[in-house]
Design a protein that fits this description.
This is RING-type E3 ubiquitin transferase. Keywords: Membrane, Metal-binding, Transferase, Transmembrane, Transmembrane helix, Ubl conjugation pathway, Zinc, Zinc-finger. It is a multi-pass membrane protein. Its EC number is 2.3.2.27. It is a single chain. The protein has 258 residues and is an alpha+beta fold. The protein has one domain. Helix content is 32%, strand content 33%. Strands 1-6-7-12-11 form a 5-stranded mixed β-barrel. Helix 1 packs antiparallel against helix 4. It is flat and about 75 Å long. 26% of the residues are buried.
């Protein structure tokens, strides 16, 4: 077997491995697309008027502050209706001592309810169980030699100058990840953002509409429309279902040549 044949076989095997991963991603995308296409779409007005709300519904509306008022993201001080904070600790591996490990110390999000509005109709969202797609990244900062905070939602007191510097900071850790320290990231949904929501509609005690999720089926909130989400899923399906057969054919050809 010559070196060229061996090289082709190795490349084909690598492509098959990539194709398997893309195939699995395509299957997941297909399941997600079908769930989007089979879940009924409503305006908030129609959903509020429904005598018997469906088990799951999809709506497109604007997100605004809830009964507790507008939120403020703790690190960037960004006005928002929802935020998520992630803190990753870069530290030396305990046994070897010569390799940095990344440990996610905190991954928290706000639970305060916010309001959806559409053509004069409102619905209350309770984001206890929630998955947010493509929220706005407003803070991404690495601090060398920093220790993880005891409470990710209560960063240390900063001067006005330091706060202003951090507010504008979206510098990715990059090479700094090769040093011990912490990376702080923060995502938000700003007031007035158009969001696509897939959730369980319920009636409140006052008769108003409420959207919730549960542990098995979290509320899905996306800054993309349903059409955009379906188009993204179709692209993943096309790539995933195309690459693996081609990779297998290339592998068979490489084995034949060898």
């Amino acid at each position: 077997m010559n070196n060229v044949a061996v090289t082709l076989q190795l490349l084909a095997l690598i492509l098959v491995g990539l194709g398997c991963w893309l195939w699995l991603r395509a299957m997941k995308a297909r399941a997600h697309r079908l769930s989007l296409q089979t879940t009924p779409n409503f305006t908030l007005g129609r959903l509020a008027e429904a005598a018997d709300p469906p088990e799951t519904a999809e709506v497109l509306a604007q997100a605004w502050a809830g009964p507790d008022g507008q939120l403020t993201a703790p690190y960037s001080q960004t006005p928002c209706v929802w935020f998520r904070v992630e803190v990753v600790h870069h530290h030396w591996e305990e046994e070897a001592g010569d390799r940095l490990e990344l440990t996610r110390v905190f991954d928290l999000h706000s639970h305060e309810p916010f309001v959806l509005r559409d053509s004069g109709t409102e619905a209350l969202c309770r984001p206890h169980w929630i998955t947010v797609d493509d929220a706005e990244l407003v803070h991404d900062r690495f601090e060398a030699d920093a220790e993880p905070p005891r409470d990710a939602l209560s960063p240390p007191h900063l001067s006005i100058e330091e706060r202003a510097e951090r507010t504008a900071s979206t510098t990715v850790a990059g090479p700094a990840a090769l040093r011990p320290g912490c990376t702080y990231r923060e995502w938000v949904i700003r007031p007035g953002t158009n969001v696509f929501v897939r959730a369980h509609p319920k009636r409140r005690e006052d008769g108003g509409l409420m959207l919730i999720g549960d542990e098995d089926a979290p509320m899905v909130v996306s800054t993309h429309t349903e059409r955009e989400l379906i188009a993204e899923d179709r692209t993943k399906e096309f790539v995933g279902f195309s690459v693996l057969p081609v990779a297998l054919l290339l592998l068979l050809l490489a084995l034949t040549l060898g």
